Amino acid sequence: MEKFAISNDQEFLEILYNYALNPNIKDRERKIVQLGRKELENKVYSLSVANRMVASFQREAISSRLSKDTSVLYNSLKDYISKNIPLGTPRVAGINAGYDL
User: Fold this and answer.
1) Is residue 101 in a domain?
2) Which of 7, 53, 56, 94 could bridge 98 with an S-S bond, Cβ 3.0-4.6 Å?
3) What pLDDT score was predicted for residue 77?
């Protein structure tokens, strides 16, 4: 699976819609994707959503390995954040930055 090229909020939302249907991901990973999708649908700032998803995937990776497909999404989200984060914004993810599963 290749990295996702996220260029705008609508594309990000479409990627999450389709990704949630992926049979090769774990239930907890799917839950993170669904929570991110709901926030995007509610017009939450997309970089905030991406950051929360990355933090949640990091926690999942610590407790159990991420599936290969989710690792691709994780790296795509990190790239999206890096390319779009405003200059001067700190990149420190707090302990409570992710979703509570």
Assistant:
1) no
2) 56
3) 92
